[in-house]
Amino acid sequence: MSQHALSALLSPSAVVVVGGSDRPGSVGAVVVSNLINGGFAGAIHVVNPRPLALDGVKCWTDLADLPTDIDLAVVASPARTVPDVIAGLGERGVRIAMVITAGLTEENGLRPAMLAAAKASGLRIVGPNGLGLLAPHARLNASFTRGDATPGRLAFISQSGALITAMLDWARARRIGFSGVVSAGDMADADLADLIDLFNADPHTDAILLYIEGVTHAAKFMSAARAAARNKPVIAIKAGRTAAAGMAARSHTGALAGAYDVHACAFARAGIVMVETLEDLFDAAAVLGSTRARAGDRLAIVTNGGGAGVLTVDALDGVGARLAALAPETIASLEAHMPAGWSHADPIDLLGDAHADRYTAALETVLADPGVDAVLVMNCPTAVSTPEDIAEAVADVVAKARRRGVLKPVLACWLGDANAAAVRDLFAKAAVPLFDNPEAAARGFGYLLAAGRARLALTNAPVTRTDIVGDRTAVRLIFANAREAGRTLLNEVEAKTVLAAYGVPVIPTRFAPSIEAVEEACHILAPPYAIKIVSPDISHKSDVGGVALDLPTVRAATNAARAMRETIAARAPHAHLSGFAVESIAPPGGLEVIVGLTTDPIFGPVLMVGAGGTAVEILNDKALGLPPLNDAQARDMIARTRISRLLAGYRDVPAADIEGLARTIAALSALVVDFPDVLELDINPLRVGPDGVLALDARMVISPFSSPPSRLVIAPPPTDWTRDLSTRSGLAFHVRPVRPDDEAALAAFFAQLTPEDLRMRFLTGIHVVDHDRLALMTQIDYARTMTFLALEPGTETILAVSMLAKGADPSRAEIAVSVRSDLKGRGLGWTLMDHTLTYARAHGVETIESLESAENGAALRLEAEMGFSVRACPEDMSLRMVERHLTPLA
Questions:
Q1: What pLDDT does residue 248 have?
Q2: Same domain membership, residue 138 and residue 193
Q3: Does residue 561 form part of some domain?
Q4: How confident is the model at residue 801 (pLDDT cuts 50, 70, 90)?
């Protein structure tokens, strides 16, 4: 309901260029020239201490003289002047400043001074050190790029100004347009998350492209990306693929979880489709900038060259696509128009002598086939027909199909350069993405599919969950004892005790501080034995001879311990040997797996699973995941490893306990949600066999500080907001946050509402609340949204529902409450809303909004009683806008 704080970037009423100039070649002169030549309809102002005379521009020598109706500034003045410029702009009521100027750093004090000046007036800053922005639908070019951008449906946010110029040149040649192009610069204030939110809310934008060098405020970024990816495709390229991370890590997991891999994991969890090269980004842009349709994976290929079709088929498997199986009716219809030698299958080979009419017949027929989700039309140049004639025929068929409501994506691949400009123009006008080789066409279609799969992953999560409740008291005691001893590295026995507290099966292990204690421990355990050193200074015990296995007797175990002591003294003389871990050898069988956790400097805790054992780094078989996660997400992690094929069983080898492995991953997730203390953790090896899982070895590193803040970038369910409440009339109920597996119960709740109550809740005449609406209420980002369920005590029967949704501005939120029709008038709505408002206050919400039907007298009376103001909606007089300002909790 409220406007995005950065909306003036895309539709300003007036623009001022501070540092605008008439000096040829200067940045200020180029920005002013681009603004004028772009055709911006609003007023253009320039501020320069030197008097200027520029046609069509109002020039000023002093900021104080500016009018107060300017909402966007472009700052290109010298770095030393920028803080004062920002202060002056704020005094004149400017809402946003795009700071192009470079050289504002923490070291020289200019960056903090600029931010302090902006904070004083609430002005937002994009930049500094950026290229500017383009908003083609507003005919706004407030940048120093070469050339302009045409209006389109694609947004591009880049941390590289040079890449913006490359993208614009590439798009211009291919007739691809943009809804907006923003150079994020150094992101001193507005960051990637703010800009993603801006384009998510923009009605002109159908897809968002990102060039990312580094993420700031990772939790905020993840929240914005997840919100956007639910609505429109988000495609990103991350620079720095080979950057190493975890060089100082004391765990295998830390060493294996490289920065690029962690970014890829985070992007996937946020619903972002990640590409690896600029060419891939351009391929994605070509498709997403040309079609809004979502597609299934069944592709029909229409071509006049069999070889080109085969090359495309070869590329389809790698992008998750498949050939469509043509219906018998389709083949029969094609038969009437095709020559005798046509392929009779997909790919549909029209043969080399195909004219435009043959393309027309084939394309019309396959578009009508319900088993075809999308079509790729290919043309190899021949002397029989010109490429533009074929393109014109294809564009005409597509236009007619869309007018009939057939919105299946159609892609084109024209090989050869003959008449390329004419062909590009035809397909650009028809909004058909054009590629010049089969592999690029397949990749382009693959990105369309990947965007659809990413959206489904955010809204079609499995309804399974893992509720793991650990023994928090026991874990706190272990952590406290280690810190009291001045240690952050837990010994093996301590680490296994923590794991056991969260339900992970561990092999019985005893700590022995001396050789004599080794003998005592062996008498408690059953042979054969394993002896391992315990040292805070040695990360990988086997590397220094600190592990002995299959020891058949107590004597063999004590002798092994003595030998280890001597070996460690020789190989690692500076290492402190605390003692030995003594355990029984696990029975043979199963596979060695590693399950671990590390802490990424950007994205916080990261889980890992893969092939384990002593060769873990060499095998490099891993999959990463971000907590919190459930058992279904854990199974997905396992499926992405190579060892998963062995775990599934083969020939006469039975399948391993994959469910047990998934529960172990989920246990580590629960542990780090409960205890941000855990920085690194390895279970290596975790023996996984048909009969279960067993942790044979474990290492854990904790924070030196007690109760450190959580570094999770995905908010877990706030279970501490679970309550038992009662209304003023005495109706008791239980309140808890929603879970993804509540969708069926929520559907049953809405099915019990009267048609009138449904209309009042959703402001439309729906009869059934569909999956998409239910997913918005159940599969939520707890950082932005909260759905509270009021349940009948002791059951999972829903009595009422409240939903609180924050947007890009965390200080504002919308609220909606639904009460079961037969329970109205008993105070349930009032009590549940009061609980929700208390939650909102505790999470920094200052203003609550709601949109109600003017006919919904009960809701309007309730909101008025609770202190909401009510006013008519200016866009629709049948609606009422209600608002309440909240006082912060003491």
A1: 41
A2: yes
A3: no
A4: very high
